[in-house]
């Protein structure tokens, strides 16, 4: 006879008429959650007031403030799963995000919640809920769960109020995403010499394969950054799964003298390191020497496995084992790079960037590696990087984005190159063992941008272009201080894509960029679209690019 014993999750959390449940999510790292809590509490109060005063609706917090932790965030997948086991499946839920959050804490529960869901973010540089919301939205898209999304600086503007009213009334909020237009291989612009170049590059990749080597494959809750193996196989870009423990082993094999040569090479070319003496709070020379060992070990792995690109997870695992990966990531992705000897003494890929897939995000690995192959095949500068869609604000009559990667870019993306770079210590809250960033102002110029996501096993890519700006010193400094001062910053305008367009339709907190000279930008964009289609990728052209490829 079978006896069934299951744990009762507890009383059901319900919402009556004119009531909405509030859920909030944040980091896995409790130090970050405590730091971010006061801002979350402030925006919860704003939301509660606007719901009560404007919409006669009561906001009910579905989970308590944790006095022993000093915050009220969901901070693990177990906690999020246990919470939604108690929530009434029909209850309307607002997920309020005011900080970076690990989507997997809630995503699997949200994907199975049939009631209305609104992802609501503040729009701020210092406390970037917008980044967390874009990640959660992209994650739920990858899980086949459409949800509503909304964003606002202060929860008092007309756009926000209209959107909130629509969601409260109908249970759904749909934004206009006509800035994205589907492209097919029969469009006239692709039946050109540029299109033919793209098709040939795509055919080369499908036949020869671009192998992407990732040291562990899940970082910071980004389910949207983990693609099905079949999706990668179908586009000719398979995964080589590497272990971060193996990276530590290979780093240990790098002799001290070679580490010193590497660091001195960058110092001689003008990179400035903000060295101090206290490793707990300041950048020290041993930290950067350890990063040099990582750079050398990563390049040797790329050579050993025949990798087109390489990426390190770092935040979960290596963060407690060695200095930050950022200097190594930016340096390996640069064409101007310390001559790295393989075990046999041969210099590894001199003058060639090895695309670095920050945070092992496969959705940026795909366009980064594709652009590297296309641009290098054309003899053009081929450095690529991802950025967080961090923030933005008005300047000189237009909206200017702040794209900011959490640590480094290739030197070729900075104004002044290596000599324009400063190495700051990564913030101790997230990086206890330190390590240098590669910081500076990204140079002025035109660029192509892209991001891949998936539906089932089908890869879909957004493609657009933009202008990077060199802002006056005072304005650049204002934006640095409003975001993260130690990180490189790209200030830019996207061609034909406004702030709310990107927030409505983008499927990630990340975006890939590669600088392309104005004279060849249209041809390169056309070739890239044709290349993607040839690799069995669905292409959505963004903004002005849609008119170019029509």
Walk me through the structure:
- It contains 16 helices and 18 strands.
- Helix 7 (229-234) links the parallel strand 7 and strand 8 (239-242).
- The protein folds into two domains: 19-170, 3-Layer(aba) Sandwich (Rossmann fold), CATH 3.40.50.10940; 183-548, L-fucose/L-arabinose isomerase, C-terminal (L-fucose Isomerase, Chain A, domain 3).
- It is globular, with a radius of gyration of 23 Å.
- It is α/β, with parallel strands linked by helices and 550 residues long.
- Strands 11-12-16-15-14-17 form a six-stranded antiparallel beta barrel, surrounded by four helices.
- The mean pLDDT is 97.
How many strands in all? 18
Mean pLDDT: 97
Query: Helix- and strand-based class?
Result: alpha/beta
Q: Write down the overall geometry.
A: globular
| Strand order across the largest sheet | 11-12-16-15-14-17
Radius of gyration: 23 Å
> What is the helix tally?
16
* Second rung of CATH, namely the architecture of the largest domain: Alpha-Beta Barrel
- Please name the CATH topology of the largest domain: L-fucose Isomerase, Chain A, domain 3
**What percent of residues adopt helix (DSSP H or I)?**
25-40%
How far apart are the termini? 68 Å
The CATH homologous superfamily of the largest domain corresponds to L-fucose/L-arabinose isomerase, C-terminal
Unreliable residue runs: none
